[in-house]
Amino acid sequence: MPEEAVLFRGTREGIHIYLNDEVEFPSVVDSLEQRLATSQNFFQGARVVINTGRRTLSADQMATVSQILNRYEGVQLVRLEQSKAAQKQSNSEMTALVVEKPVRSGQQLYHPGHIIVIGDVNPGAEIVAEGNIVIMGALRGTAHAGYAGNKSAFVAANVMAPAQVSIAGILARRPDGDSPVAALEPEVARLRGEQIVIEPCQRSSYE
Amino acid sequence: MGKAIVVTSGKGGVGKTTTTANIGAGLAALGQKVALVDADIGLRNLDLFMGLENRVVYHLVDVIEGRATWKKAIIRDKRLENLVLLPSAQVRDKDSVTPRQMKQLVDELKQEFDFVLLDCPAGIERGFKNAVAGADQAIVVVNPEVSSVRDADRVIGLLEAEEIKCIQLVVNRLKPSMVKRGEMLAIKDIVDLLAIDLLGIVPEDEGIVISSNRGEPIALNQTMKAGQAFCNISRRLMGDEIPFVDWQEDDSFFSRLKKLFGIS
After folding, report:
1. Quick one: which of A8, B40, B108, B119 could link to B20 by a disulfide (CB 3.0–4.6 Å)?
2. Is the ipTM of this complex over 0.85?
3. How far apart are CA A14 and CA B150, in angstroms?
């Protein structure tokens, strides 16, 4: 008997949904739809973690999955993760996309590896990488690092003034109020536990 | 062979048509042969700014659809004999024309004129694509406001995607007193963010409203601040190096007096 394409498991955090990485993506989507449809009540208001195994979801595939989840009221996608093995492999083997001009409002960059921008990322622009993001300029738009669930990913920028930053699906947004006062030194955003922390790239030895 | 320059902004109401009319008049006053093309099909305005509305017989869509040649459709300006306008159609819409047809028309005009200025509609859809299709260069008009700068940034990205290499910035409606109080975006912040060359700064001037209602480009009136600013832009387009006037400077009688005595 073939292994199931989708597996559900309840945890303290909510419901973990494992998407079998050995089954073709369309059939995974089909069985996800079926399973959710048969147990609708069960999922109402549930917090969901999706584990993609060794598979890395593309932006389109991710959109398909979240569309399906959005059909159920109150279902909240907490996190997207990969199996440990996949994470280890990815960081060192990822390629980097290098962009040598400003990323402007309405432009979106996606790369299944690291992204390096030589220039500014303006408000309204979006950078999505499965690995790390490095901006040699000002980050004023939105940056998503570790998009496929890599929690060790980071976002670094010469001027860190983003609208939003997310790492492995955990989001931080700029506080409301006046325009942000960015530090005059390069900063890096990392995940500490379940929180995004922004700190200088290099700590002064005087401190 | 002349240059085709599209005047665009993304956001509406920032002064694209005013800028087109005045830069065109400025260039013509400097002796250039200039064609203004109103590419805002369905919302015809440029003829009003030039005071030529009751002379419109044929329009851009007529030319594209072969009912008239461009030579028949253009309207010669009342004041400047080397300035002409190709008006847009008021009764048609943006879908009446394709980018390819526009490019063909602009290429023909470029044979005859030194400058072809295209007044682009607001937005980034079909009308924008039409206006941009034949352009060699672009002028992006921006007001010192966050929303206008954001839209301009988007438009610059689209222009770059269209392989337009020379994109220059005009900051329109600058209120020096507000910049001074820190209530308006400063020129430097805008230029830093958009990362393109500055072509000119036009201060807010009530004379603009009056002149456009009268259909007389303010660029022909050197006594007005905005008129001066538009003339400087036209001269920079011709390759002259003109320093930027610091409109932020307060040139009231008292401040000049203070400067004289070295207190300010």
Report:
1. B119
2. no
3. 39
